Amino acid sequence: MELLDNSNSTTGTFIYDGTSWRTNANTATARLEAAAIGNSTAAVAIAGLAPWPSPGARLNTTEEFTGETTSINVKTLTQS
């Protein structure tokens, strides 16, 4: 898991699949310069700096990240 380091998308994450980067589920807490450990299915984001409303304030939070998302891309849904 790679946490983005910019004030516009600090909850955004990307996954590298061995060939290219793709977007993934967002984290719950916006943070800059966080420490992270794990992989695309189980990771932990630790500490970091707050981007807003107190830019640069140190965060003392830890967040579990599973990367699981629920999405569906279809044109028509039918119920049977």
What is the element layout, followed by pairings?
Elements: E1 2-3, E2 13-16, E3 21-24, E4 35-38, E5 43-46, E6 62-65
Antiparallel strand pairs: 1-2, 2-3, 4-5, 5-6
Could you walk me through the main structural features you see in this protein, from its secondary elements to its overall organization?
By secondary structure, this protein is mainly beta. The chain has one domain. Helix content is 0%, strand content 28%. Strand 4 and strand 5 form a beta hairpin. It is elongated and about 50 Å long.
Largest sheet, in brief, is: 3 strands, antiparallel
Which residue ranges are poorly predicted, with pLDDT under 50 across at least 5 consecutive positions? Answer: 4-9
Count of distinct structural domains: 1
Shape: elongated
Major beta sheet, strand line-up: 1-2-3
Helix and strand string, N-terminal first?
Answer: EEEEEE
Task: Please report the total strand number as a whole number.
Answer: 6
Q: How would you classify the helix and strand content by structural class?
A: mainly beta
Please supply descriptive tags for the structure shown above.
80 residues, mainly beta, 3-stranded antiparallel beta sheet, elongated
Overview in brief:
This protein is mainly β and 80 residues long. Helices cover 0% and strands 28% of the residues.
